[in-house]
Amino acid sequence: MQITEETGPSGGRYLASVDGKDGIAEMTYSRASATLIIIDHTGVPDTLRGLGVGQALARHAVDKAREGGWKIIPLCPFMKAQMARNADWQDVLSQ
Q1: Contact criterion met (CB below 8 Å) for 61 and 74
Q2: How far apart are CA 4 and CA 89, in angstroms?
Q3: Sheet bearing 36-43, strands edge to edge
Q4: Which domain does 88 fall in, by range?
Q5: CATH code: domain of residue 77
Q6: Number of domains in the chain
Q7: Where in the chain does DSSP place strands (E)?
Q8: Is 78 helix (H, G, I), strand (E, B) or coil?
Q9: CB within 8 A of 76, min separation 6: which ones?
Q10: Helix (H) or strand (E) run with residue 65 in it
Q11: What does the pLDDT look like over 14-53, one tens digit per residue?
């Protein structure tokens, strides 16, 4: 699996692809401030479902938040559920 990032002035998205599979999954975010991002959408095409792609995107977002020293507001229902399931991610959850 390969995860890349596209960024713009007010946000960006993480993109995931899997060798040998059609489709690209994405997780989009908006930057609320220099230390806060809002994850607002996660989309995984049917061709990539069941391969852990959504989980990998969520983990990548948490890793990037830790590296950048920012917090996450998970508006996306998928990301919100992942944050609730992973107690060790609470350090990047915005309260």
Answers
A1: no
A2: 21
A3: 2-7, 11-17, 25-33, 36-43, 71-74
A4: 2-92
A5: 3.40.630.30
A6: 1
A7: 2-7, 11-17, 25-33, 36-43, 71-74
A8: helix
A9: 27, 39, 40, 41, 42
A10: helix 53-68
A11: 999 999 999 999 999 999 999 999 999 999 999 999 999 9
CA distance 39 to 45: 18
Surface-to-core class of residue 8, CB atoms within 10 Å of its CB (0-12 exposed, 13-18 middle, 19+ buried): exposed
- Which of the four pLDDT bands, split at 50, 70 and 90, describes residue 95? confident
CA distances (Å), 68 to each of 29, 47, 71, in order?
14, 32, 9
Asked whether the whole model's pTM tops 0.85, one would answer: yes
Q: Find tokens 């990998």 and name the residue.
A: 56
